[in-house]
Amino acid sequence: MTDLPRNADVETMLLGPVLPARDCGDCTACCTHLTVNSPDFAKPAGISCTHLTAGGCAIHTVRPHICRTWFCVWRRRADLPDAARPDRSGLLVSLSFVDHPQNCLEAVFINVRLLPGSDALRNGMAAAMLDRLCDQLVPVWFSDGQEKMLMHPAADVARHILSDTPAPTHLAAEVAAWRERYALFDADRPTAT
Predict the structure, then answer these.
(1) In 10 A of CB 190, how many CB atoms?
(2) CA 146 to CA 10: how far, in whole Å?
(3) Dihedral, CA atoms, 119, 122, 124, 125, nearest 10 degrees?
């Protein structure tokens, strides 16, 4: 049995490398809206980092390892427009890892967070981002801060992925591809020996 790749390796495999032409600029959405729980730094979601000032990070040159190595999806996907930067779009998109997922579609997934006060639902940015992000075998969840909804795969596909029911012919190949990719994370599903 081989070890799982490290989170950074999985991010690069699923999203691509960090784009050198893109930088955070004035965006500090991750400094407020994410939960951080690493050996050298921790903070709850929705609370601004204690090092965040009006001018940005006060300790940028010596910031914690997690802050130096974490990048939102906008920093990795060239097909996302400049308007998709979190502070411009009102959406913070990241790859999330859950240690003890309830099911295989919650182990590693793209999380699209609607930021407080965002117009992304009304102005169509959320729909445009979801269209671009739901293009591969990576679950996509949308969160408004209160609830989380599975956006990709579609409900009928997800139902068959998570159950032992045979998929109808028109969904069989797609369900099989998802099951193969995520079987590693499905603790309840028996594995072949």
Answers:
(1) 8
(2) 27
(3) 10
Max mean pLDDT among 32-36, 99-103, 120-124, 135-139 falls in: 120-124
Q: Which residues is 92 bridged to in the sheet?
A: 113
Element (H, E) at 140: strand 140-143
pLDDT of residue 6: 57
Separation between Cα atoms, residue 171 and residue 73, nearest integer Å: 28
Question: Is residue 1 scored above 70 in pLDDT?
Answer: no
Label the pairing between strands 108-114 and 140-143. Answer: parallel
At 50 the three-state DSSP class reads: coil
- The upper half-sphere exposure of residue 186, i.e. CA atoms within 13 Å in the direction of its Cβ, equals 17
CA distance 177 to 174: 5
Query: pLDDT tens, 50-79?
Result: 999 998 999 989 999 999 999 999 999 999
Runs of H (alpha helix) within the chain: 7-15, 29-33, 65-69, 86-89, 125-133, 155-162, 169-182
* SS3 category, 29: helix
Which residue would you say has higher pLDDT here, 183 or 185? 183
Residue 90: closest CA among 143, 42, 21: 143
